[in-house]
Design a protein that fits this description.
This protein is mainly beta. It has one domain. It is 12% helix and 51% strand. The chain contains one helix and nine strands. The strands form two sheets. Strands 1, 2, 3, 4 and 5 form a five-stranded antiparallel sheet that branches. A four-stranded antiparallel sheet has the order 6-7-8-9, with no helix packed on it. Strand 3 and strand 4 form a beta hairpin. The termini are far apart.
Length: 140
Amino acid sequence: MKFSFRYLSLVVVLFAACKRTEIISPEAAYSPDSFARLSVSCQGPYGAYWNNAKKTLELRIVSLRPGNSAVLFNQQLSIQGSDIDWDARWVSPEECVVDIFDYGKGVNRDGHQISAPSNHLATITLRLNKSTGLYEQAHN
């Protein structure tokens, strides 16, 4: 019995070290009119999400209109950081803003920085193109 438990523990540890880590936002951001939902996910390297490394951030907006579950926006971005997080807010039903942060070494989540000059990595603005009905990344 001890041998099989140790073997199983070793397999679990090895599997966890090789698995690609994915963080999915537990709270989706709903548009003010409740007809669209933004979801954000971030995938880190295999077994090393918290390391300062390139990660894939995916932004997706889907329609919540009855009978229509179309994807209105889907984009993957490559981003460098250790503990990537984001804050999404809808300015209006036609515009959503996503701020991306790195809460890595030296940065507290309460906004007080220990040693890092800034933890803000990017701001992405998504706007509805009324002629296509899809959201596009705004280039300011």
